[in-house]
Every structure is written in C-alpha cells, then in structure tokens.
Design goal:
Number of helices: 12
Radius of gyration: 19 Å
Bound molecules: fe (ii) ion
Helix content: 40-55%
Strand content: under 5%
Shape: globular
Number of strands: 2
Strand order of the largest sheet: 1-2
Number of domains: 1
Length: 292
C-alpha cells in the first residue's frame, strides 16, 4: 500500500504523453486555427494541467547535478536488456494508456506519425529514421523509472536554471538552487564551452543519445539528445553555453520540433504497410541489436 502510494506520488500524470499534450498548449501550431473546445474537453484539460503541474514540481525539485551523475552511472552501463529496434518498439508499446483509448495513440503511432511527416516533406533518410526512434528512450519507464526522470522539458544542471523553463518557480525547492557551486549563470561550466560538456537533466533524450551515438550522423544525434530542450530550441536562453557547432546543429533540432508536436495525422499510418520501408531504413544505419 505504502509503495503504491509512493509510486502514484512519483507519477502524477495518467499518461506520460500528457506532458506532450501540454507542450502543444504551450507552443500551439501556428498553422492550425485556434479551435473552440467543448466544455467536456476543457474540463479534461484542466484536470490534466494539474497533474502536469504536479509532475513538473517533482521534476524541478529532484533533477539536481548529483542526481544526473547518479543516473549516468546507473544506466550508461547498458546492462539491462539487449534488443533490436523492433523489440524495443514492441517493448515501448506495452506502455499504453487504457484510461483514454480514444484520444491517446500508442507509442508506435507517435513515432510513425513523426517519421512519416518528415518523409512526406522529402527530408533525408536519416532524418526519417530519427523521427522513428526519437522517443525509444521512454522505455526507461518500463525499467521502473518515475515519470519525472523520463519525460518533461530538459535543461542544463550545474548552473542557474533559466526562468524560461516552464514553471521556473518550482526550482526554488531544488537543493542546487541555493548551492553556490551550481547557482550562477555558468556554474561548473565556462562561456561557450559547448553542450557536449554540459550535463542535461536526466531523461529519455540523453539516454537514447548515449545508445545511438556511434551510429547516426551529428544532426540526428543532436535531435535525439536535445529535442526536449525547449528553453534553448524555442526560447534561446542557453546560447552562452553553446559553441559554434551547437548553434549550427540546433537548426536541425528546431526543424524537427514541429514534426514531434504537430504531426498527428487524421488517418493513422498503417504500421504493417510501412514495415518493409522501416526495416530497410533501420538496417541501413543500426546494428541488429543494441544494448539498453
Ligand atoms: Fe521525446
Ligand atoms: Fe516525441
């Protein structure tokens, strides 16, 4: 009983993708006219907003520099599971939300909608592949990790938190907020030291990057590693830590973001029909199995 209570406190959102729904409210699609919502939807949305807010409260309090170091030691040994991309997709897809089957797509659908929208715009094949795999790191949830250590906007730790990060007031409860090693503009970093030298809050982005780093071209790796770094790719508030290469590569991160947020197709892609194309694509770039 106590354990399940603790689990619920750690996982306030009904579905980890509620965070992404909330992102669309924060950064609406400029091409989509504002829709009038029905009263019922408004009610559901406001309930959801409360849980997302609760989620960020925990996330901002607990994502410290030390916490990230601890998770790196724990997960970058990759000793949990060896899987092909297809096994990883199946595994991730066991994370379905049955509370709201009408609205929420399964994880494979989100991946395919993202990648198919990229493909439809004629982008290079590595970009399509990136769309297809970008959220596989969310299998961290299935390894028992709490929501606040898997999803949510990511941000640098080890230096002052930007007030452009959603709900910045919640950082006041983070011990690093008052730690003089970590609470100045540069903290443990130096001007334009490059993001490769900067620790980001721990989650699905960094985890998948570390798994993929030997196999994909740089722009793909930047997309995977920084796609939730909204305070930079949307708000440009950490340019002082970036080097020239980062600035150049972030054009790709920015190009990717609308596909991630706004690619919900009215007719969901047919996974079975698309499978042969994706099998070829995956085997062009990735080894048969990967260590997670
Ligand atoms: Fe993601
Ligand atoms: Fe995504």
């Amino acid at each position: 009983m106590k354990e399940s209570l603790n689990k619920n406190l750690q996982n306030p959102m009904e579905n980890i993708d509620d965070w992404e729904e909330n992102l669309i409210d924060r950064y609406p699609d400029p091409e989509e006219p504002k829709k009038e919502k029905e009263a019922f939807r408004n009610y559901v949305d406001s309930e959801r907003l409360d849980t997302v807010r609760e989620f960020y409260k925990i996330n901002h309090e607990l994502q410290t520099y030390d916490f990230v170091c601890k998770k790196e030691t724990e997960f970058l040994k990759f000793d949990r599971k060896e899987m092909s991309i297809w096994e990883a997709v199946d595994f991730l897809n066991t994370l379905v939300d049955d509370s709201d089957p009408d609205i929420d797509l399964d994880q494979l659908q989100h991946l395919l909608q993202t990648s198919e929208a990229i493909r439809a715009d004629g982008h290079p094949d590595w970009f399509v592949l990136t769309g297809f795999i970008h959220d596989l790191g969310k299998i961290l949830c299935l390894f028992g990790e709490p929501q606040w250590a898997v999803v949510g906007d990511t941000f640098p730790v080890g230096c002052a938190y930007s007030d452009k990060i959603v709900y910045p007031e919640f950082f006041k409860a983070n011990p690093d907020y008052t730690d003089s090693r970590y609470n100045t503009k540069y903290g443990v970093y130096s001007p334009n030291c490059g993001l490769d030298n900067v620790k980001m809050s721990w989650g699905h982005d960094e985890y998948l990057y570390q798994i993929m780093k030997d196999y994909l071209p740089d722009p793909a790796l930047y997309i995977i590693r920084y796609h939730s770094f909204y305070s930079q790719h949307r708000e440009n508030d950490y340019t002082h830590l970036m080097n020239e290469k980062d600035v150049e590569m972030f054009e790709w991160v920015k190009a990717f973001n609308p596909y991630d947020l706004y690619s919900k197709a009215p007719v969901p892609p047919n996974a079975e029909e698309l499978l042969p194309y994706y099998k070829d694509l995956v085997s062009k770039y990735l080894p048969e199995t990967l260590k997670f």
